[in-house]
Amino acid sequence: MILPIVLYGNPVLRKKCKPIDADYPELNVLLENMWQTMYQAHGVGLAAPQIGLDIRVFIVDTVQTAKEEGEKQERIKKVFINAVMLGQGDEEVDYEEGCLSIPNIHGDVTRPDEITIRYQDENFATHEETFSGTNARVIQHEYDHIEGILFTEKLKPLKRVRLAKKLDKIKKGIVDCDYKVKR
Predict the structure, then answer these.
(1) Is position 24 within any domain?
(2) What is the phi/psi pair of residue 20, to 5°?
């Protein structure tokens, strides 16, 4: 089922999310709905707060970007539950980001090019992995969501000032996008 994506201004996007356990009700249904919602909105990642849930769950699919960009870097399609960032590399890279909860807003964000993260998969098996490049960037963006942080907070101050009116419109529900949204 395609779920509405919560828009900028909704308080759930600013909450630090709670961990879940294997008894979380209908987790498989939730994950399937998240995949469908993300693909319908043409996203590469989606975090639970973006569908109104304050739980530490997000999904990432960078495989589709590899097909588009023709890159050879290994791409991922993964579920991240109860993720904890363990470390990051020293090299930082600027790259333009956007967010399904903040339609039609983009800006350069500086992030570490490499991260190490501990998480559980959909079967609650624990993994500790290091990711780099696009994979690291998308994971960091989605991880920020479960920490209550939006990419707009990482933009340069002048860019944030320039976007203030557009962000205010989104907060009021005035958006033009081709997927279901909720204020």
Answers:
(1) yes
(2) -125, 165
